[in-house]
Amino acid sequence: MIEYRIEGPGDIAAIHAVNARVFGQSAEAEVVDALRIASADFLSLMARKDGAIVGHILFTPATVERDDRRVVGMGLAPLAVVPEHQGEGIGSELVERGLEILRARACPFAVVLGHPGFYPRFGFERASLRGLTCQWEGIPDEAFMVLVLDPIVMAGVTGVARYRSEFDAVV
Predict the structure, then answer these.
(1) How many structural domains compose the chain?
(2) Residue 85: exposed, middle, or buried by beta-carbon count in 10 A (0-12, 13-18, 19+)?
(3) d(CA 132, CA 111)
(4) Domain assignment of residue 54, given as a range
(5) Cα(40)–Cα(154) distance, rounded to whole angstroms?
(6) pTM
(7) Helix/strand/coil percentages in the chain, nearest 5
(8) For residue 4, is pLDDT > 80?
(9) CATH number at residue 8
(10) Where are the alpha helices (DSSP H) in 39-130?
């Protein structure tokens, strides 16, 4: 059985280890640690199986800015599942549970820079279809996606979507 829950203080070291292992380097794990310290408004969920953390997902504030309008939503990154448990639906469950919490918190949107074959199943679409561009140059159009969670708040919102500056270290 897999347990899904919001991270607790005792999970931090294991979450760091999962991210370092999955991404094959410590950069993403260090960004997660920095985001945890820098942002009071984040959502970090983990999956535990047989006493070990096998998956993690993080949502942190992201903004869309254009002229004098600024809308704050969330950016999904990273999503990590240890290799021996990939393909078991753990990543999908983490995404679903995270989005459910964001909806309950009245978050207007979520952006993700990710695999175009994975995220559309949750309702993500190319951000460019909504008039949104990524802050980083050279990102393939199909890889930068948005999920509008509150169509009223997001009506007519276009512009540059920005993740927190801590991500600049790994992009």
Answers:
(1) 1
(2) middle
(3) 10
(4) 2-169
(5) 23
(6) 0.95
(7) 40, 35, 25
(8) yes
(9) 3.40.630.30
(10) 90-104
Reported as a single tens digit per residue, the pLDDT across 78-129 is 999 999 999 999 999 999 999 999 999 999 999 999 999 999 999 999 999 9
Task: Render pLDDT for 9-36 as a digit per residue (tens, 0 to 9).
Answer: 999 999 999 999 999 999 999 999 999 9
User: Distance between CA 131 and CA 111 in Å, rounded?
Assistant: 13
The reported pLDDT for the residue numbered 148 is 98
Which residue in the block uniquely carries the two structure tokens 């207007």? 108
CA atoms within 13 A on the CB side of 94: 29
Contact 141, 128 (CB under 8 A): yes
Tokens in use for 129? 């279809």
